[in-house]
């Protein structure tokens, strides 16, 4: 899957920082950075899901799941 496909199906993968109001002890790790690291090791995303939101404030920060495979 390309970044464009991932962005269309699960925009929260590309969040650039944590949602407002989280504890200062929370460490934000961008999922896009993890996807790039997996690609460097010849793993590619093959499936993506994103949780539906109930509160508009969570849009772009909801839970997401990526499936990957090695070609």
* Spatial shape: globular
Task: Give the biggest beta sheet.
Answer: 2 strands, antiparallel
Strand order of the largest sheet: 1-2
Number of strands: 2
Distance N to C terminus: 12 Å
Structural class by sheet pairing and helices: alpha+beta
The radius of gyration over CA amounts to: 13 Å
Number of helices: 2
State the low-pLDDT regions, or none: none
Helix content: 10-25%
Strand residue content: 15-25%
Please, what is the average pLDDT? 92
Order of helices and strands: HHEE
SSE map:
Blueprint: H1 3-9, H2 31-40, E1 44-50, E2 64-69
Antiparallel strand pairs: 1-2
Quick take:
With 71 residues, this protein is of the alpha+beta class. The mean pLDDT is 92.
How would you describe the overall organization of this protein?
The structure is a single chain. The protein is of the alpha+beta class and 71 residues long. The protein contains 2 helices and 2 strands. It has a two-stranded antiparallel sheet. The longest helix has 10 residues. The protein is globular and about 40 Å long. The two termini are 12 Å apart. The mean pLDDT is 92.
Which features does this protein show?
71 residues; alpha+beta; two-stranded antiparallel ribbon; 24% helix
